[in-house]
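Hi F.,

I've been meaning to write this up properly since the lab meeting, where we talked about keeping a consistent format for the predictions we share between groups. The idea is simple: the sequence comes first, exactly as it goes in, then the structure tokens exactly as they come out, then a line or two of notes. No screenshots and no reformatting. I'm using this chain as the first example so we have something concrete to point to.
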Amino acid sequence: MEKENTRLTVCLTLLVAAIFGMFVPFALAQPTADSIGVEHASGYRNTTVSVPVTISNTQNGPVTCIIFDVSYDNNVINVVEVKKGTITTSWKSPAYCDFDWGTNVSIAYTGRDVEAIQNGTSGIIALLKFSVVGEPGETTDMCLNNLQLSDLSGENVGFDTAPATDGTFTIVTNLTQTPSSTGSPSLTVSPTESPTVSPKEESEGEGEVITPADTESVIPTATPTITPSVMPTTASPVKVSPSPITKPSSAPTATSTAAPSPPGFDAIFAIAGLFAVAYLVQRRRKAQP
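Output, unedited:
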């Protein structure tokens, strides 16, 4: 009897162990991922900056709920809003609560299985909107901890099963702000670039203005041709005065010089002829007895 009881006990134990070994792995398979975290970020004082929280290669899901804490220095940055990410757009709006050490964030699906994050998914699960309150040059670490991932059953929760990647937030200093302030800064940088481009174009424009100056130097040569066209308007009376002056001056002088010269020569020849005839007549008279 004792041997049969021990055999029965061993069999039951093996059966329980087999059953436990079959079902426990499924019960203990907690949702996880390759990593969850934030990257380095920066911003100017008195501005707001959105920092994405990403998850990489989810496993043992699908994942239906994510909870995490992000710690940072409240004297440098503060979370003022949390928005849904690219792979949680159909989920409920994130809930968050600020503390002295940082912010607690939780985001969950609406209850429809199709909204769950499927295994192997990577993307942005939330956007942390920080208000930059520190001084330029200050920095603070952004550390994720107390990570919780829940599956469809809601019973399997992975506590810190995904490695967290932390980032650093830096407030931009005035040295880098001047280029960007010349850029919002960048607008003044781009203007400086556009001025540098436009001055060149303006210099080319001035070169074109110089060529008009050259064309102006050409215009004097063309001006005589233009002035006749202008003369009819303004110098039409001038046309009347010079034209009669040139015609009479040339014609009368020609007629006056031509008319007196021939009559003078004819008179001389006529008088000489008369003297010759009178001389011959007198010689003949003297020759007669």
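Notes:
The domain at 28-172 is CATH 2.60.40.680 (Immunoglobulin-like).
The first helix runs from residue 2 to 28.

If this format works for you, I'll send the rest the same way.

G.
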